[in-house]
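BUG: 3D viewer hangs when loading the predicted structure for this chain

Environment: internal workstation, default settings.
Expected: structure renders.
Actual: progress bar stalls at 90%.

Input used:
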Amino acid sequence: MNNTTTKTQKRVDVRKLVFTALMAALSIVLSELTSFKVPFMPGFISFDFSDMPAMLASLTMGPVSGVLVCLLKNLQGLMSTATGGVGELSNFILSACLVLPAGIAAHKFHKYSHVIVGCILGAVLSGVVSIASNYFIVYPVYAAAFHTEIDVLVSMYKGLIPVLDGNINGLLDVLVMFNMPFTMLKGLVAALISVPLYKRLRPVFNSIYRSEG
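Structure tokens produced before the viewer hung:
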């Protein structure tokens, strides 16, 4: 490898590092400032836009950068955690599931249509994985930490969407009917914001991936 190639690679690496750090900082800010409650979910669950910077980092700089943004956001969240870090662990897993397929699609196939498919797959994967992470980790730990029963948490979902009340018989039911669609929707919103930005930013990163065919 000649000196010119080495210098170019170093510039690329520095640019990736700086952009990843900026996206991590933006993700942390958004997690703090854009969090709000939604009417169709219990009060202990909120919506925010903090996955958008991770998605954008994954699309432009690669899946590793996207996952790193997710990691840094949740490491910062540990400083004020109310779940002993379990909530942050689950958030990291779900966010990583969201951004990985999108980043892989953007850097392997290079076509805009494939990027959209990758984002959709990421949202679906995140929603499906949320069932397991909530069922086996988050809700049991949450119940233990706040000295409550799982059935009490399940009852908090009843009345939110009256037409579904008759189908709620346990934790798995609410995770499938409420949490999974909510997680998918959150991922799709992040993609809806990130993909147009990615399309505009893509020329800036021409040295990292080849142009779309």
